[in-house]
């Protein structure tokens, strides 16, 4: 199931979009202001972000620029009643992948979301490399130094989330919410157990460690520094 972040302050518009996407089997999180939207974009992995331009607290231009400055590559589709060429160019220059003017038909919105998903796959987003580690998200395979590493389904889910957020420190609660979808007791040590499983397979046989612990903060997958 694809997960979408909708940042839209108009209640009727957000409800219309959310209902339509859920009918198409998407999972949708809604934020009604720019600050909350940016926070969610940082905390969770989304397949597409739908971002309105005119928002309270922080406008869509600011949110888009901030998300891209943090090297989050999630496709962004901007929505706005501002439909001049200058507005569209501004959004694209700030890092948006597409721009749709209001009012719009849901069918067109849905088509653009699907196109963004195809474009992300075509541009190689589904193969992530960290040092000598290769994570193929489409084939669900992992290699390090060219050698195949066999992971369980849950181990792969954890590695995928770490890889999609490489270089970013992820808290234990972020991992619980995004990998296990909060189906586990927050007091459980399941995160620590599975991080250890991954380390035994991905790091232990090799000289350079890629999964690092940031004390008091969480875990990060990167190719420099120590655990």
From TrEMBL:
Which biological process, per GO, is one annotated for this protein? regulation of DNA-templated transcription
Give start and end of each Response regulatory domain. Answer: 3-117
Domain (OmpR/PhoB-type) ranges? 125-223
Give the annotated DNA-binding region, as residue ranges: 125-223
Keyword terms of this UniProt record: DNA-binding, Phosphoprotein, Transcription, Transcription regulation, Two-component regulatory system
The molecular function terms of the Gene Ontology recorded here are:
phosphorelay response regulator activity; transcription cis-regulatory region binding
Q: Tell me the Pfam families matching this sequence.
A: Response_reg, Trans_reg_C
Q: Provide the Gene Ontology terms for cellular component.
A: cytosol; protein-DNA complex
Q: Which residues carry this modification: 4-aspartylphosphate?
A: 52
Among CDD domains, the record links this protein to:
REC_OmpR_CusR-like, trans_reg_C
Q: Which residues cross the membrane?
A: none
For this entry, the protein name equals Two-component transcriptional response regulator, LuxR family
Q: Which organism is it from?
A: uncultured Cytophagales bacterium
Lineage summary: Bacteria, Pseudomonadati, Bacteroidota, Sphingobacteriia, Sphingobacteriales
